[in-house]
Amino acid sequence: MEESIKQGAENYEPKTTKVISDLDKVSVDMVMRDDEYEAPDENDPNKTKKVQQKLITVEGVDYRIPESVLSQLKVQLKENSELKHFKVDRKGTGQYDTKYTVVPLFGSPILETSEPQV
After folding, report:
1. What is the pLDDT of residues 4-63, one digit of tens each?
2. Over the chain, what HEC string results?
3. What is the pTM of this model?
4. Sheet with 85-91, edge to edge strand ranges
5. Where are the domains of the chain?
């Protein structure tokens, strides 16, 4: 499709990958896939390196899954194989100062009533 630079600029939407912590709730049964992209090499600004990552897609948007999240989720699933949903809390900023914590989510809380539970 041909278009002018102006049209291209007006239609431009940058490709961004969000992080799994941007989601409120994630199912452990979601399909994850491998992805690879080129990034600047920290040791040589004239070179790039290939970076591998894991992604899930929700409503057409890609979300990156940090390795630390998979590692923590493995521990959670070992302790509770019935776990179906979780969320990820993120603290800090930047590649080296960000810490992720997997928080298991359980079913709806039992409503307290004055009726005795049978």
Report:
1. 999 999 988 877 779 999 999 999 999 999 999 888 888 888 899 999 999 999 998 899
2. CCCCHHHHHHHCCCCCCEEHHHCCCEECCCCCEEEEEEEEECCEEEEEEEEEEEEEEECCEEEEECHHHHHHHHHHHHHCCCCCEEEEEEECCHHHHCEEEEEEECCCCCCCCCCCCC
3. 0.73
4. 26-27, 85-91, 99-105
5. 15-105
